Amino acid sequence: MTTPETESPLNRTLRHFALAEANLDKIERHLHIIMQLAPEGIDFSSNAEYENACRGYSELLGGLPPIDEWAPSARPLDLDSIAHQRLDADMVGEPEMLISLGKEMEEPADELVEYRYRLNRARRRFIRDNIIKIAEVIGGTMDSDDKGRDSRQQLLASLRQIDVLLGSAFKRPKAWDELMDGLVNTEDATAIETYAAKWSAIREQLMSGLYNDVEPLPIPMEDLGTRSRSPALGNVATQLNWASLDDTGFERLLFSLISSSDSYENVAWLTKTRASDRGRDISAYRISRDSLSGVTRNRIIVQCRHSLKQSVTLPDVSSLKDQMALWESPRVDVLVVATSGRFTTDAIAFIEKHNNSDRAMRIEMWPESHLERLLAGTPGLVAEFRLR
Predict the structure, then answer these.
(1) Are β-strands 294-305 and 334-339 bridged in parallel, bridged antiparallel, or unpaired?
(2) For residue 368, what are the contacts with CB-CB under 8 A and spacing of at least 6?
(3) What's the pLDDT tens digit per position in 122-171?
């Protein structure tokens, strides 16, 4: 058992974050009780229960350590102050005074909301930084010439630390469980070599999942104007790293790509990844503007197929086409099959024949090459999803 004397600084800090959250939960519940005890009108009578609750609130504030040198300090108003301010507002007939009182009474709650935000942000930052460090250790173990039993145990220990750090705050990469279970259940000395090839893709997914929508991606904070005037040699990377995405990430990429286009509206992510959804992943309306006929809107369904090895086959396309007819109105005008791979020759021939017929619904192919051209115009998405 870990004792305070043997506890690592990493584990100690995690424990402190957990204690701060527990204290925050406690003070939030206590403040709710105080607000229920507060009188609604002009009341100068004493209330020992309210006053004791306020004293307890002051004690609980001491259990919230500062975050970046800031901690909540506002306390609930005493009953006399509340009564006097309400009386003054009533006597002079100034509603603004009541508004000011309301804001003053809400200040403790507002500060607790701010503290929770800062606590979650600081904890995510701390966990993220340590996961990145541990991932570097794993990379070194994977690349080491020594891939015996001791290295496998060291690798497992590092992966388990990441697993604990991820907790419920971060998403685990695709194939994470497969990697963990594979290393646990094998005694093969070459196990590391077997899973080293998978680690690169897993690491990319792991790193991209450490940042949410309001956390900036890491970038050297140097002046980009100065950088733009510096000579830069070498070639531009043209291929995208599709292995950095899992199924959900690929759908998120397509959703973000379509949403960022002025040619689409009412973009909706309809179902969960791998759900039994009849092939329907993203729905949108494509807007076409013509100077003579005006604006037309066509309903499109985008079926996302993330696969690095298997191409989209004729049976895949035929099945998706048939399923579109099952959906209720409005009808599907265009079925887009988007894949990080390619289409088989038979599938391409089937789609071309279908589109040359008198069928109302068209089928569009968005293979890897097409997506690369689309994403070339949105470098921000390429960087966000770590595709290059």
Answers:
(1) parallel
(2) 240, 242, 339, 340, 341, 342
(3) 988 888 888 888 888 887 777 666 555 667 778 888 888 888 888 777 88
